Amino acid sequence: MVFAKNPVLGTAKTRLAASVGAEKALEIYQFLLQHTATITAASDSDKRVFYSSYIESGDVFSEEHFSKTLQRQGDLGEKMSAGFQIAFDDQYDRVVIIGSDCYELSTSILNQAFEALLSHDFVIGPAKDGGYYLLGMRQLEPAVFQNKTWSHESLYQATLADFTALNYSFVELPVLSDVDYLDDLPQDVRTKFGV
Description:
- This protein is an alpha/beta fold.
- Helices cover 35% and strands 15% of the residues.
């Protein structure tokens, strides 16, 4: 599952926009969406995009590789929990969710996540800001989405605490960086966009 915010000027990557402007932030976000589409299309899995506001056709997430739906209402935890519920209702037995702003994420790491779920209850990819860029599970566990402060440096550790308290086995993936601020972009990308 890919959670994607629709690329609309003034609403995409607002923290990044504070330093580069709304138009440049939108360009960079569209670049990140393309990266996400490319690495996920190459993964040997079924793929579904959950859009924030409206379903896009003819975008970087081609209908050939991706099914499409809207995110449910609620906070991020409620939206993700609903996404997992949809996938498990559709009889999938290993489900992974990612966002659309992790430039360091690769097809190889996605494949590692699915492989980890063959023998563990959960897999999680820690982000450098204290959150996570990937979460995977074999059955819905609502507790990991409840009583969390989203977009906060405590999120990753709070989620690990849930795994431990509920006696779930889990695998941790490499630490990667989400792109929220200019410093999160590697130099080659900053050069590409002139920022």
